[in-house]
Design brief:
The protein is 44% helix and 18% strand. Strands 13-23-24-25-21-26-27 form a 7-stranded mixed β-sheet, with helices on both faces. A 6-stranded mixed β-sheet has the order 3-4-2-1-5-6, with helices on both faces.
């Protein structure tokens, strides 16, 4: 019995026993929780639990195979749309493609091509162009945290290690303080790099609760042995054929090696049988290599996401984003989240921005060159993953041509912007010569290779294009030769091309005709010329496909052979795009170059500084009120800022932090003059909010953030604090705020540069301390009306104007009148209380003085 008949007989008894379902179940066994898309002809089919789980997510109909097996399907040409829905729902998606069975070409085998997860995307339609798509892994060794990040879509791969310290255990139910420190460090990395997926040793999954319980990343547990440094060392040196020390991994026991091991294992599993474009991982220095920004600082300053809806609008990124290329946008995001601490790097970028600001023609030339640059980094990754498209070759050609234009334009501007090697230039020439200007979206969807490139391809195309005429000419010749005017040349899919002659004329057929088929009224023939023509015509399409596949494979091989140089070229283009964006923003906003001080005592001197984001979004015609600041470690390192709500305190302290960050990015800043020292960290404590998923109340969050600042700041830090102590009772909060001011302004302490905005006017009394100054928001009262001037001046506020702000918000007038009455009453009670306290204090001092006099008298009598 044939395989098909056996399969049909088995299916009658068990629908899961058919050849197709056996293939499906065999593949499914090794995929754990992944949803399997099983290619069958022009559709990807899903069966059993996968179909029931995926159908509502993909919004497709759930049906049944052979009346019992749940199934659904999606067209192969639109599969990315459905994969995107599954990935967004947190699913893994496995893709099984079909190929002929070597034992029986009439049957199809399916082979697992890849497993798609949120952190391993290479498909263009599933990725955001302006941000990296990071896969993160971590490993722990004692009190050290190892981290690795890979962007499979661009090839970026690096690792680092953080020493977190280890606190003593408290009790059996509370997490150890060491765990909290590990979680805090992990949370900062998650905030900075926003990974889509996090790989964790299965014995460390509890860190998820502490580090990112509400995060958008998907956590994947992996076997702990895969996170060992020794396994990472083996993986690294085997895969990349280099010594680990050559990549910066000096410590063979570093948990960073364990973290990168998890990534290498995971990527190999998700791309079976493929050599992925993932560059050799570099070891990056720890947190001290750049200006550190923790989770709360990134959030409070709204660097890449706003606090209203988490979107990119009204952020520093959106304000600076004048980039023309995806790689430039990613470079900008990285520059914002990891500003320089090295003065040479800061000056190098600022020098290039200055060159562009002084040369409108150069700016225009670079802008024009960058206009056509697409995402070559991700095109290379697609090629390496076997997911390439014909347009990838055009993307490569355009990027190289743009780089050549930029190199030529900048040659007279000091050079050194980027370099195009001879081999890459040759590659661009060959791509121009071989690939058509507008290739199809997919292979086989149209011509990829130009005419005249390959003789075999040209012949096949000629046959395909002129085959119809060849047949007509042959038919005419045969009619004349045979004298049979009713002779016809026809074609069908079963018998191919044939000469058709009526029964009555068949006896007069030429001697070289061979009978092919006999019908009721006709005879069908062929001859050697028609057979040769048939072979040429029917094989033309296949030969075209094979020739284009061969040439595309050769081009893909050349791209991947140059991938290292092309990657460097794209990074240079991204940096050029970033510099151009910074220059455009500076030119439009009249920004100035800051003076960065690399050594000596900390300083922060800004004349007429402005908030870059607020200024950009002011209503048309409104002007931003600039403000200045002068903080010096030696004289005045701590500023207490008082003033009413809505007067601009939060805007003021945020703009100072943003100016510091911009300066260390190598950018110009929104100020008339700026001189500042380099920070190691920017700390912020702004706003109020709980974190219910971590079990933390509003006040507890405030105290956690404040404690972190007090424990981690240094003399090179910038600290921005707003309304500390407002989450508890007045005297509790004021006492805490008072103690914080004393700690951060203590000459014997770390003494960071600090701006401390508060409603506790009592804190202005601390202005008498050596390092503390008072600043206030200027307010004018006219005819019972209050005017906020949004100006900062030295001095202290004596009122909060809260009732005035309530009136602006539309509070009912009756409530406002009662509030004013109650305010007068409370202020009188407070005055009486202060008077009584002063009298009691005076009385105590008198008793103490009399007692002292009596003691002296008896002592010296």
């Amino acid at each position: 019995m044939s395989r098909e008949k056996k399969g049909a007989a088995a299916a009658a008894d068990d629908p899961l026993a058919t050849p197709v379902m056996r293939q499906y179940l065999e593949l499914k066994r090794g995929l754990d929780d992944a949803i399997l898309l099983f290619r069958m002809g022009d559709f990807y089919e899903l069966f059993l639990e996968d179909a029931e789980r995926a159908a509502p997510i993909m919004d497709v109909a759930l049906t049944r195979r052979q009346s019992s097996i749940p199934m659904c399907g999606v067209p192969y040409h639109s599969v990315e749309t459905y994969v995107q829905r599954l990935i967004a729902a947190g699913c893994k998606v496995a893709i099984a493609e079909q190929q002929p069975d070597p034992e029986n070409p009439r049957l199809m085998q399916r082979r697992l091509q890849r497993v798609i997860t949120a952190g391993t995307l290479v498909e263009e339609g599933l990725l955001a162009s302006s941000a990296n798509n990071y896969l993160m892994a971590f490993a722990v060794a004692g009190d050290n945290l190892g981290l690795a990040l890979a962007d499979v879509s661009t090839g970026d791969f690096f690792a680092s290690a953080v020493a977190c310290g280890q606190g003593p255990a408290s009790d059996d139910t509370a997490p150890r303080s060491g765990e909290m420190l590990l979680a805090t460090a992990l949370r900062d990395w998650i905030s900075q790099y926003a990974p889509r997926e996090i790989l964790s040793p299965s014995d460390r999954l509890q860190l998820r609760t502490l580090a990112a319980p509400e995060g958008r990343a998907i956590w994947q547990p992996m076997e702990p042995w895969k996170a060992s440094p020794s396994e990472g060392l083996r993986q690294l040196e085997t895969r990349y054929a280099v010594r680990a020390r050559g990549l910066g991994f000096e410590d063979p026991a570093s948990p960073a090696l364990g973290a990168l091991s998890l990534i290498l294992h995971y990527v190999r599993t998700n791309f079976p049988g493929q050599t992925l474009f993932l560059q050799a991982p570099a070891f990056r220095e720890g947190p001290g290599a750049c200006l550190r920004l923790d989770e709360q600082t990134i959030r409070h300053l709204e660097l890449t996401e706003n606090q209203q809806d988490g979107g990119p609008q009204r952020t520093l990124f959106s304000t600076l984003d004048r980039c023309k290329t995806p790689v430039g946008k990613r470079a900008l995001r990285a520059a914002i989240l990891a500003p320089f601490r090295n003065i040479a790097e800061i000056q190098a970028r600022a020098n290039r921005v200055e060159q562009l600001l002084g040369n409108d023609g150069l700016r225009s030339a670079l802008s024009a060159a960058l206009d056509g640059v697409q995402d070559l980094e991700r095109a290379l990754a697609r090629q390496a993953a076997g997911r390439g498209a014909p347009r990838d070759f055009v993307i490569a050609r355009q990027a190289i041509v743009a780089a050549q234009s930029i190199a030529a334009a900048t040659a007279g501007a000091g050079g050194g912007w980027l370099e195009v090697t001879a081999s890459i230039a040759t590659l661009a020439e060959d791509l121009q010569r071989i690939v058509v200007d507008s290739p199809p979206a997919v292979f086989g969807g149209g011509a990829l290779v130009r005419d005249g490139v390959d003789a075999e391809l040209d012949r096949a195309r000629q046959a395909q294009q002129q085959g119809g005429q060849w047949i007509l000419d042959f038919e005419e010749r045969e009619r004349k030769r045979s004298g049979l005017n009713a002779l016809r040349v026809k074609y069908n899919r079963v018998y191919g091309y044939f000469i058709e002659i009526s029964k009555g004329q068949a006896k007069d057929a030429p001697q070289d005709y061979t009978r092919k088929q006999t019908l009721t009224g006709y005879e069908r023939f062929s001859n050697d010329e028609l057979a040769e023509m048939e072979a040429t015509l029917l094989g033309a399409e296949e030969r075209i496909q094979l020739a284009e596949e061969r040439i595309a494979g050769e081009l893909s091989h050349r791209l991947l052979a140059e991938s290292g140089a092309l990657k460097q070229l794209m990074q240079a283009l991204g940096e050029t795009d970033l510099r151009l964006a910074l220059a455009e923003v500076a030119a439009r906003g009249d920004w100035q170059r800051p003076q960065c001080v690399a050594s000596g005592a900390a300083c922060l001197e800004i004349d007429d500084g402005r908030h870059p984001v607020v200024e950009e979004h002011l209503p048309r015609g409104d002007l931003f009120t600039p403000n200045s600041v002068r903080l010096l470690a030696a004289e005045r390192s701590f500023a207490v800022l008082t003033g009413p709500n809505m007067a601009g305190k939060s805007t003021y302290i945020r703009q100072i932090a943003l100016i510091q960050l911009l300066a260390q990015m190598g950018s110009y800043v929104p100020a008339q003059n700026c001189r500042l020292s380099l920070c190691d960290r920017i700390f912020t404590r702004i706003g109020a909010g709980d974190n219910l998923t971590r079990g933390e109340s509003t006040f507890f969050v405030e105290m956690l953030e404040t404690a972190r600042i007090l424990n981690q700041c240094s003399s090179q830090s910038l600290v921005i604090m707003d309304e500390v102590g407002r989450g508890t009772s007045t005297y509790d909060g004021m006492s805490i705020a008072w103690a914080i001011v004393e700690r951060l302004s203590d000459p014997e302490g770390p003494l960071p540069l600090t701006l401390f905005a508060t409603h506790y006017h009592e804190l202005t009394a601390l202005g008498e301390r050596e390092k503390v100054i008072n600043l206030t928001m200027d307010v004018q009262e006219r005819d019972g009306r209050v005017l906020f001037l949004h100006r900062v001046r030295e001095g202290a506020a004596d009122r909060s104007y809260g009732i005035h702000v309530a009136r602006l918000a539309g509070m009912p007038e009756a409530v406002l009148r009662r509030a004013e009455e109650k305010l007068i009453e409370l202020e009188r009670e407070l005055d009486r209380s202060r008077q009584q306290e002063a009298e009691q204090h005076s009385s105590r001092r008198g008793r103490t003085r009399r007692a002292a006099d009596g003691n002296q008298s008896s002592l010296f009598s």
